[in-house]
Amino acid sequence: TPVKGRYFCLEALSPQANDNIAAIAEFDVLGADGKPVSREHWKIRYADSEETRSGNRTADKIFDLQESTFWHTSYFSAAKHKFPHQIVINLGEDKIVTGFSYLPRAEADKTGMIKDYRVYLKMTPFKL
C-alpha cells in the first residue's frame, strides 16, 4: 500500500550470520511508480552504529552510488551494540513510498547480511 512520508527508518532485527553486524552497500526507496525516488536531497538523520575507524563505512554511503562503499555497524562495539540496528533517512521532501530495495556488501563471505527487518515511514522526525 502506498504511504506518504519524509522520514524512512530501516530497523534490522537480526543477521544472517551469528554476529551483531549489519551492512548496506546501496539503498533505494521506491516511489508510486515502483521505481527508485531521487536521492538528491537525502540526509542521514540517525544511525545507531557505524564503523568510523576505517574509511567508507559511514551511514551516508548507502546512497552514494558506489557499491564498493557501504554502511557498516561498528566492529569495535559489536558486542555492546547488538541487534536491532536502525538507520533513519530524511528523504528531503514528502514522498509516496511503495517499497525499498537494498544491496548488501558485494564481497563473498563478509559480515553484515540482514535477515529480518521492519520499516517505518513518518511525515515528522522520529524521536531519537
**What class do helices, strands and sheet pairing give?**
mainly beta
Strand order of the largest sheet: 4-6-1-8
Classify the helix fraction into a percent range: under 10%
Low-confidence stretches: none
The radius of gyration over CA amounts to 14 Å
Annotation, overall tally of beta strands: 8
How many DSSP H or I helices? 0
* End-to-end CA span: 26 Å
- Largest sheet: number of strands, sense, barrel closure: 4 strands, antiparallel
Strand residue percentage: 35-45%
Shape: globular
Order of helices and strands: EEEEEEEE
Mean pLDDT: 91
General description of the model:
This protein is mainly β and 128 residues long. The protein is built from no helices and 8 strands. It has a 4-stranded antiparallel beta sheet, with no helix packed on it. Strands 2-5 form a two-stranded antiparallel ribbon. The mean pLDDT is 91.
SSE topology sketch:
Blueprint: E1 3-15, E2 23-24, E3 26-30, E4 43-47, E5 71-72, E6 85-97, E7 99-103, E8 114-122
Antiparallel strand pairs: 1-6, 1-8, 2-5, 3-7, 4-6
